[in-house]
Each structure stands twice: as C-alpha cells, then as structure tokens.
Design goal:
The chain is mainly alpha-helical. The chain has five helices and no strands.
Length: about 180
C-alpha cells in the first residue's frame, strides 16, 4: 500500500509539472534610443558651441563674479548674469562644450551645405577629441576660479577650434572638405 501511495505521488508530481506554465522570461532591458540628428552642424555650432565658447573668452579679461546679475536672474538670457552666473556659469559652459563634442559625432548629421558631417574621417574624431579636451581644460580652470588658468584653457580651446575650422570651415567656395 505504501509503495502504491509513493507511486501515485510521483505520478501526480510528473503530471502536474507537465501542465504547469513555464517561468516567465526575465524582463528585457529596453534598448537605448538611437541618437538622432535634428540640427545641422552650423546650427549646433551657433546654438551651443559659439555662445558657450564666448563665455570662456569673456572671462579671459573679465571677472565673472563682477557681472551684475540681471533684474530677474531666473529669466536672464546672459548666462553670466543668470541665477547660475559667475564661475558656475563658466564651469557649465565648459561642460557644455565638452558634452557638445558628442553631438558632432552623431551619425546622419548634415553640414549646412547638405553634405554629411565627416564623422568617418580619421581626423574628425581627433578634432572632436581636441574639443572635448579643451572643454575639460576650461572646466578645471573655472573650478580654480583663476583667470590666468582661463587664459591657458582659452588658448587650448582656440587651438582646437582653429584646427577644425581650417580643415572643414574656412574653405573657399566649393572645396570638397567644406562643412558647416
């Protein structure tokens, strides 16, 4: 009798395991959305790189702590006179330059003349890295709150920008390398 009960229990276990639903799959992590270019290269330059570079260049000869805050700093369009002005604005502009370098490598971005941004060119990656490095140099200089350090960082930034502009922007007329 006992053997029969054991056999029935084993049979019931086998049958119930065949009818049970499988364990749910582990939740899959959604893929990160692909980067998508919405602005052309000139628009990225004019909206992000140019204004943030100007903050660094301004601080070469002007103390950012002496910039008079706007009457309503929360809505100021001059970031040095905004709620986040002073050396903090210089730090933020430096980081914006560093982060914006990533935007220069987004596949599918176009130059203002309709050509593809030359992200596949070996020198493009090096030039973009120079911009990243210049942004970080400016960030470290801003953290030091020392205008002499900003002078050095601004020189690094000027060198990085000029290297790219000489190759890709400052080309007359229909030069094949022109991209802005």
């Amino acid at each position: 009798m006992r053997l029969r009960n054991v056999a029935l229990i084993l049979l019931a276990t086998v049958v119930s395991s065949c009818n049970s639903t499988p364990a749910p799959e582990a939740a899959k992590t959604p893929a990160a959305p692909a980067s998508e270019a919405h602005a052309n290269l000139a628009q990225v330059m004019r909206s992000i790189l140019f204004p943030n570079s100007n903050v660094i260049f301004y601080v070469q000869s002007n103390d950012p702590t002496k910039v008079k805050p706007a009457s309503d700093p929360a809505s100021a369009t001059d970031i040095l006179a905004s709620t986040y002005g002073g050396w903090g604005a210089v730090e933020n502009s430096s980081l914006a330059l560093t982060e914006a370098a990533n935007l220069l490598t987004v596949p599918g971005r176009k130059c203002s003349n309709g050509k593809d941004v030359p992200v596949q060119n070996e020198d493009w990656g090096k030039l973009v890295q120079q911009l990243r490095d210049a942004g970080m140099a400016a960030y470290k200089a801003a953290q030091s709150k020392n205008q002499d350090n900003i002078l050095t960082a601004a020189d690094t930034m000027t060198t990085a920008c000029s290297a790219c502009h000489e190759k890709y922007r400052d080309k007359p007329g229909g030069d094949a390398n022109r991209c802005m």
